[in-house]
Amino acid sequence: MNRLIVAFFIVVVLLVAGGSRARAQSFGVSGQAAFSMTSPSHFPFSFSKTGGGDWSLHLVPSLDYFIQDHLSVGGLVGIDKDGGGSTIRFGARVGYDIPLGSLVSMWPRGGLEVSHSSPNMGSGATVTSVGIDVPFLFHFVPHFLLGVGPFISVPLSNSAAMGSKDATFGLTALVGGYF
Asked: What pTM was estimated for this model as a whole?
């Protein structure tokens, strides 16, 4: 894991230091929309089956709109479904894209998310959390982006039936496009 983090930062430094190629259309321009898929636990999405078990789906599409240069507002809808039950989530966020060179930018985003889990056996639970993610975006070709960066999500104290009040943190991956 430590080697992955070191390799990631080396790539970021090299791209920032060596990137002088101008992008056809810069990311984060006023009036621009960005569609992305992101996930802290899977590469941006997954649809899988293990052995004779049930199929599993993890999908979290999001849409952000730049209301002025570099300033975005957006939302997400997500679903996790497997043999044990399902979770549906909705969220709203605000972000600010910070160009770090011609091929790399950092897009800190923060907001609120409400998720409802419904296990096949037992009662469901709704949790409200506040989260921040800071993906480093790589703009290798126009209108397409890849990203990776840290995130933290903290359940709020008013969330009913929380199983845990502990924060969740780690690395998240992102893939998307903008128009």
From this structure: 0.79
